[in-house]
Amino acid sequence: MPQDRPQMSEDDDGQSPPLDLRSAAIADPCSSSPNKSRNCIPSGAMTSQAFPDHVLENVLENVLQFLDSRSDRNAASLVCKSWWRVESLTRSEVFIGNCYALSPARLTQRFKRIRSLLLKGKPRFADFNLMPPDWGANFAPWVSTMAKAYPWLEKVDLKRMFVTDDDLALLADSFPGFKELILVCCEGFGTSGIAIVANKCRKLKVLDLIESEVSDDEVDWISCFPEDVTNLESLAFDCVEAPINFKALESLVGRSPFLKKLRLNRFVSLEELHRLLLGAPQLTSLGTGSFSHDNAPQSEQEPDYAAAFRACKSVVCLSGFRELMPEYLPAIFPVCANLTSLNFSYANVSPDMFKPIIHNCHKLQVFWALDSICDEGLLAVAATCKELRELRIFPFDPREDSEGPVSEVGLLAISEGCRNLESILYFCQRMTNAAVITMSENCPELTVFRLCIMGRHRPDHVTGKPMDEGFGAIVKNCKKLTRLAVSGLLTDQAFRYMGEYGKLIRTLSVAFAGDSDMALRHVLEGCPRLQKLEIRDSPFGDVALRSGMHRYYNMRFVWMSACRLSKGCCRDIARAMPNLVVEVIGSDDDEDNRDYVETLYMYRSLDGPRKDAPKFVTIL
Amino acid sequence: MSYRLLSVDKEELASSPGLKERNYLGLSDCSSVDSSTIPNVVSVGAKSNLNFKATELRLGLPESQSPERETDFGLLSPRTPDEKLLFPLLPSKDNASATTGHKNVVSGNKRGFSDTWDEFSGVKGSGGINLMLSPKITATANKDVSKCVQEERSHAKSGSNNAPAAKAQVVGWPPIRSYRKNTMASSTSKNTDEVDGKPGLGALFVKVSMDGAPYLRKVDLRTYSTYQQLSSALEKMFSCFTLGQCGLHGAQGRERMSEIKLKDLLHGSEFVLTYEDKDGDWMLVGDVPWEIFTETCRKLKIMKGSDSIGLAPRTMEKSKNKDGNPLRV
């Protein structure tokens, strides 16, 4: 039970957290009956004579409890001190987009009753090896601080954080009511840490390991779940590169009546999948594992895979296919008509194998695939999936000079068939302005447009012109656009368009683009909502960087690597903006003659420069 | 096959449509380059030109040579992922601080290299750079040859130095997460196995550690078919630690390794490749036939020679092959 309560504000006697009105069933220590209104006043509260605002604040508390959206909450907290205080007391979920923007202590000082933490660490370009390992984003200080401050913590959702097994052990020990652990693109832990969570978090509902690097400690973590019926609703371990104990898994699934989402890793074979499906027909989201046989396929007595899928009437989300044997793909026919989400992005599926499948997927809204489906496959998608909202096409062969099976033909087809498209990520080798312009006209709902022409500086392959007009049309016509990633040959003109029309853009990714500082200036001066700016290998220098000083406090971060920045300029900015942490990554200590900045990563912070910066990071 | 690095500066292109000849540093006037600012990359190529082989870290058998090291510049990339292309780092030529700009361009990486040069060869930077100028210029300005091949991908796809050299790729481009690359790599190799009729066992990743290196790597043994290929690949992966030059990583690794590295290199490399077999014993790599090795190897470790002395007797016991020299590094 909780000890060492932190210093509470005068509004709370510190005995118990208030009832969370939305989930009164939670077993809080000293919780009283679920009766709403009066019980929010803590026992032994100060009388209204001593603190006249207290009644008001209690009323506020009742009301603000219902505010969910964090932007609403942020707005409410600005009204006045009283609202600020009450909002801080009633916020149960906190989102921190940059773990270095504030210290864990500051979090626990302001918010007293957090049940759910969403925390993001490294910048996205770290995914592409543009940052050395051991840069930071350690979960350790957060978990140790929260262990004391939020013993009732239920949910932790981390992205790009470094999490160790010890951190997981501390988490499992400190939060008896812990329910949801979501680790996306994280690393630093292994199956032993997962085993501890599985074993000790008895109320666990969600254990989602997504695209994380999990070391194989040769621990049978599946067997570590408690023996009795579990509360599991979602179990995703498709990224765990370690064999699992199938018998234990089967037993676990069998005693998890609430399990809706199950994403298996590639060590689960087709036969094993079959057995699991027969035991869990209530699944709504399935990651199929390897979708292939362990051994050489047997000729006799092959299980009826299609029947197993037929029994899963509720499956709407399908992924996996990590080692697909294409001849078994037709087994999924029975669920195709219900699918709203299909992820083939680890399956090398040819157009011929693909078309019969997609032909049935009329309800599909989210579709991820490899470019092995070719333009032909995209035409099929466009013909059938009229409800498509999100499309991601990844390259099977991610090299600059590989054969490109998809091109502007596929993009055009999608734009014509899927008018409700909201988000697209498209890797290709060749593209034309015309196709991009057409997409901008056909798909006005686009909020995310990420086009990656894999050859650097590649122009429109038909006209030979830069891709300025295409991206220009996107920012101009897609009035809801909030996220943009550009590629191909781009001049300053493209950026002029972005600055002029991209008024809602929050995230911008630039690589190998632009001619001069003016390009970046257009963006910094023209895009008032810009939050996250990541640039690599583009000729932007000090002049451009200085032109954005009026924006940096309003941005989450700026990343610029292999550009033309000088240390002097970065230092100037750091001096002029004391709440901005300016990290220069990859420079020597004996620096004075080394004025060149290889990587700049800067972000606002309430608590000054971090203390855990490794040697290769210089904070100016 | 050798080809020259071309850096494309778009400003340059706009102003002077013809191709500008540049050396690998991205500078068009190499004589103005101070030797002390030569980045790490120089070391590798120039090293081969300067007959550096005697002191370089090598994992091959004593009489063997890493194939294609000398001439194929494009493959000399490996190192840490953070060592990057030079071409986009070029500051504007119009910049008043052109000279300092030159220095700036080649920065980001350490001073250590020039010291190495001075110690080992006594040849100054400009000499080395001139040697680099000999390869022909390639025609397409847009295709830049860059340094760091992404290890996972290259291992998975080519798996050997003997494969036709894929065009060297830029770090982190295209922007695909390494998780996805690794996954595609492992499923690719599995499918290949099956096509060949062998039981599909998928990738065989083993961890590779090196004394003094700040972090582990993993290699997929199934992408190699000989010790030669494995040793070359490991050589590329870890050479930066021995020269202490690998930019960001080197900065860390160098601190720890400085006292052994340079000296060891001077005296002829003292690194030995060892592996832990399924009995848990540490053995020197190279004694058993390759197929048996892949089946029994659990982990790899690049040890300092002095640490591996204890292994020798055991290896002799286990080894029936009297010719089998342990892989010396």
Automatic annotation (TrEMBL), chain A:
<dbReference type="InterPro" id="IPR036047">
    <property type="entry name" value="F-box-like_dom_sf"/>
</dbReference>
<keyword id="KW-0833">Ubl conjugation pathway</keyword>
<feature type="compositionally biased region" description="Polar residues">
    <location>
        <begin position="30"/>
        <end position="39"/>
    </location>
</feature>
<protein>
    <recommendedName>
        <fullName>F-box domain-containing protein</fullName>
    </recommendedName>
</protein>
<dbReference type="InterPro" id="IPR006553">
    <property type="entry name" value="Leu-rich_rpt_Cys-con_subtyp"/>
</dbReference>
<dbReference type="GO" id="GO:0005634">
    <property type="term" value="C:nucleus"/>
</dbReference>
<feature type="region of interest" description="Disordered">
    <location>
        <begin position="1"/>
        <end position="39"/>
    </location>
</feature>
<keyword id="KW-0539">Nucleus</keyword>
<keyword id="KW-0927">Auxin signaling pathway</keyword>
<feature type="domain" description="Transport inhibitor response 1">
    <location>
        <begin position="112"/>
        <end position="158"/>
    </location>
</feature>
<dbReference type="GO" id="GO:0031146">
    <property type="term" value="P:SCF-dependent proteasomal ubiquitin-dependent protein catabolic process"/>
</dbReference>
<dbReference type="GO" id="GO:0009734">
    <property type="term" value="P:auxin-activated signaling pathway"/>
</dbReference>
<feature type="domain" description="COI1 F-box">
    <location>
        <begin position="53"/>
        <end position="92"/>
    </location>
</feature>
<dbReference type="GO" id="GO:0019005">
    <property type="term" value="C:SCF ubiquitin ligase complex"/>
</dbReference>
<dbReference type="InterPro" id="IPR041567">
    <property type="entry name" value="COI1_F-box"/>
</dbReference>
<dbReference type="InterPro" id="IPR032675">
    <property type="entry name" value="LRR_dom_sf"/>
</dbReference>
<dbReference type="Pfam" id="PF18791">
    <property type="entry name" value="Transp_inhibit"/>
</dbReference>
<dbReference type="Pfam" id="PF18511">
    <property type="entry name" value="F-box_5"/>
</dbReference>
<dbReference type="InterPro" id="IPR041101">
    <property type="entry name" value="Transp_inhibit"/>
</dbReference>
<comment type="pathway">
    <text>Protein modification; protein ubiquitination.</text>
</comment>
UniProtKB/TrEMBL annotation, chain B:
<dbReference type="GO" id="GO:0005634">
    <property type="term" value="C:nucleus"/>
</dbReference>
<comment type="function">
    <text>Aux/IAA proteins are short-lived transcriptional factors that function as repressors of early auxin response genes at low auxin concentrations.</text>
</comment>
<keyword id="KW-0805">Transcription regulation</keyword>
<dbReference type="InterPro" id="IPR003311">
    <property type="entry name" value="AUX_IAA"/>
</dbReference>
<feature type="domain" description="PB1">
    <location>
        <begin position="203"/>
        <end position="305"/>
    </location>
</feature>
<dbReference type="Pfam" id="PF02309">
    <property type="entry name" value="AUX_IAA"/>
</dbReference>
<dbReference type="GO" id="GO:0006355">
    <property type="term" value="P:regulation of DNA-templated transcription"/>
</dbReference>
<keyword id="KW-0539">Nucleus</keyword>
<dbReference type="GO" id="GO:0009734">
    <property type="term" value="P:auxin-activated signaling pathway"/>
</dbReference>
<keyword id="KW-0927">Auxin signaling pathway</keyword>
<keyword id="KW-0804">Transcription</keyword>
<protein>
    <recommendedName>
        <fullName>Auxin-responsive protein</fullName>
    </recommendedName>
</protein>
<keyword id="KW-0678">Repressor</keyword>
<comment type="similarity">
    <text>Belongs to the Aux/IAA family.</text>
</comment>
<dbReference type="InterPro" id="IPR033389">
    <property type="entry name" value="AUX/IAA_dom"/>
</dbReference>
<comment type="subunit">
    <text>Homodimers and heterodimers.</text>
</comment>
<dbReference type="InterPro" id="IPR053793">
    <property type="entry name" value="PB1-like"/>
</dbReference>
